[in-house]
Write a structure and sequence with these properties.
With 227 residues, the chain is an all-alpha fold. The chain has one domain. Helices cover 67% and strands 3% of the residues. The protein has a two-stranded antiparallel ribbon. The radius of gyration is 22 Å and the shape is elongated. 19% of the residues are buried.
Length: 227
């Protein structure tokens, strides 16, 4: 069932319920397509593996990193050509709309969105950027020859203090690993904020958003909601 069909069905059932013909039961509509859901939970799993294997299982960590990179690439592609609620054009609203939504949220007046709300959309962009940065710096640090692709990076990130024990390559590799770790820690912060936002929105709008990302369905939009 498409979102439009679900909305029409919801309106029909609401009108019928008002006339006493049928009980006013919540109608659910399809929002998240299967590929969006596979991407979401796949990323959760692969990122967890990458984080847990960072210290002792370098091969597993590297494979998980490639998995993250592949999922991010897919999400960018699907954000351009995917289903309605997967597309960036549908949910990216710009800084002004995001700030207005956050202000309304602080006042407990934010509207319910059938797809991603503006704050959630901004979080998706931040997560994709941080994931890309983590994956790219991790990839560069695997081989010394790859670091040569960015000869100015060590000077930008931190001063290189060469001494008798370390050459520029070793200093550059150390700086790159520091950047990789910064991106990884930033991801943890973003994930925590994301989970907090999901919990808050679930409570505010009386809707289990975690379950919705599993089933792909959400409660049909009502008056005041943004479809």
């Amino acid at each position: 069932m498409t979102a439009a069909a679900g909305i029409k069905r919801a309106a029909t059932m609401t009108e019928a319920a008002a006339q006493g013909a049928v009980p006013a039961t919540p109608v659910r509509v399809k929002v998240w397509d299967p590929l969006v859901r596979v991407f979401h939970w796949g990323l959760v799993g692969v990122f967890a593996v990458a984080w847990l294997s960072a210290e002792d299982l370098s091969t597993v960590h590297e494979i998980a990193g490639y998995g993250v990179a592949g999922l991010v690439a897919f999400r960018v592609f699907w954000g351009l050509l995917g289903s309605r609620y997967a597309r960036f054009a549908q949910f990216l609203k710009g800084p002004a709309a995001t700030i207005a939504y956050l202000r309304a949220m602080m006042q407990r007046k934010e509207r319910r969105y059938l797809g991603h709300n503006p704050a959630g959309a901004a979080m998706i962009v931040a997560l994709l950027i941080a994931l890309s940065g983590t994956g790219f710096t991790g990839w560069l640090s695997q081989e010394p020859d790859r670091l040569a692709m960015l000869p100015d990076m060590p000077q930008i990130v931190s001063p290189v203090w060469a001494d008798g024990d370390n050459d520029d390559t070793e200093n550059g590799d150390s700086a790159l690993k520091d950047v990789h770790e910064v991106f990884a820690n930033l991801l943890l912060l973003l994930v925590a904020l994301h989970v907090g936002g999901v919990v808050l929105a679930s409570i505010r709008h009386r809707e289990n958003l975690v379950a919705s990302m599993m089933t792909g369905t959400k409660r049909a939009p009502q008056a005041g909601d943004v479809a």
